[in-house]
Amino acid sequence: MKFPLSILAGSVVALALGTAAASATDIETATGAVEIDRTPKTIAVYDIAALDTINALGVTVAGVPDRLFLPELQPLARTAEVVGTIFEPDLEALNALAPDLVVVGGRSARQASETARVAQTIDMTIDGTELLDETLARIETYGILFGKEDRAETLAATLDEDIAEARAAVEGKGDALIIMTNGPKISVYGPGTRFGWLHSELGIPPAVDDLGAGIHGDAVSFEFVASANPDWLIVVDRAAAIGSGEQNAQATLDNVLVRGTKAWSEGHVIYLPAADFYIAAGGADATGRILKAIAEGFAAGK
Predict the structure, then answer these.
(1) For residue 182, which phi and psi values (nearest 5 degrees)?
(2) Measured between alpha carbons, how far is 235 from 36 in angstroms, rounded to an integer?
(3) How large is the angle between the packed helices 131-145 and 284-300, nearest 10 degrees?
(4) Is-contact 49 282, C-beta < 8 A?
(5) Which residues pair with 233 in a beta bridge?
(6) Which of 91, 93, 187, 237 is most deeply buried (CB count within 10 A of its CB)?
C-alpha cells in the first residue's frame, strides 16, 4: 500500500520530534528547573566545585578557568582550553570553543547572562547552608545530564560513607570554633554561615552560639578566641587556598592567647584542606577530602 507523501513527511517529522523529546533532560539548577535538549559534548566549566564533580564522573571538559586551585584538577590544564577566570569569562575564547553547555556557579554565577550569549548556561551554585545534601543532589544531576548514572551512584555511596564516618568521629567530642585565617587576620563562622554546615550537618556543637550569619563571617580578635575557649579549633587558611603567599594559619594562630585555649593545649586543632574547603566545597571529591580530614582529626583527639 502506498501512503500519500504528506503523511510520510508528517511521520518523519513526528519521529524526529519524538527523538528530540526523548533526548531532552530536565535538571534542577540553582535558578530552578532547566531543560537541556541533548547530552552536552563540549562543555565549559567555570565553577571549581562543579568541575571537581564533573571530572570525578569521568566527563571530558573542554573549557576551564585559568586557575584550577586543586592539585587533583591540574591535569585538566594540559587538555582543556582556558576560557577566562572563576570570576570573568573570556567571551572570545569561549566563542572559539563553541561549547554545547556552560556551567557557572558561586564566584562565576554573576556572569551567567554573559556566557549565555555564547551557549546555554546553567548556574549550579551551592550556597553551603545544606552543603552535603546539595553535593549529593549535584552528583545525581550531573550523572543524569552526562549519562553517567552508574558512576554517580558510586560517588554518592562513597560520600555517604564519608559523611557517616565524620559524624561518628565528632560525636561526643565537645564543641568547636571554625576559624578562617587570612594572613594575620582571623574571622569566625558559626551556624547559618557558609561554613556552618559543619555544625548543622555533622553535628559539631558550636563553641559560640550568637555569631553572625554573614558570608564573610565575623572578624574577631585573638582575645575573642581565648574567651570562647573551644574544645576544638577547625581552621581554614584562605591564603593557602588562593595561593597569596601571606602568613600561614599555623603562624597566625601560634600566639599566647590561642595557645591558652583547651583546643590548642590538647592538640585539638584541625587544619582543613584549604582549597577544597574554601574554593571547592560541594565538589564530590573535594567534599570527601574535607570529611576525611574532619574524621581523622577528631578520631585522633583524646
Answers:
(1) -135, 85
(2) 40
(3) 150
(4) yes
(5) 177, 269
(6) 237
Residue type, 127: D
Cβ 298 vs Cβ 232: under 8 Å: yes
CA 115 – CA 108 distance, rounded (Å): 10
Residue with C-alpha cell 565549559?
A: 44
pLDDT in tens for each of the 302 residues of the chain? Answer: 443 434 334 433 333 334 444 468 899 999 999 999 999 999 999 999 999 999 999 999 999 999 999 999 999 999 999 999 999 999 999 999 999 999 999 999 999 999 999 999 999 999 888 999 999 999 999 999 999 999 999 999 999 999 999 999 999 999 999 999 999 999 999 998 999 999 999 999 999 988 877 667 899 999 999 999 999 999 999 999 999 999 999 999 999 999 999 999 999 999 999 999 999 999 999 999 999 999 999 999 76
39: cell is 547530552
Residue of 134, 120, 129, 162 whose CA lies nearest to 36: 120
At residue 64, the 3 state secondary structure works out as strand
28 phi, psi to nearest 5 deg = -90, 130
Phi–psi pair at 92, nearest 5 degrees: -65, -45
Residue 66 · residue 48 · CB < 8 Å: no
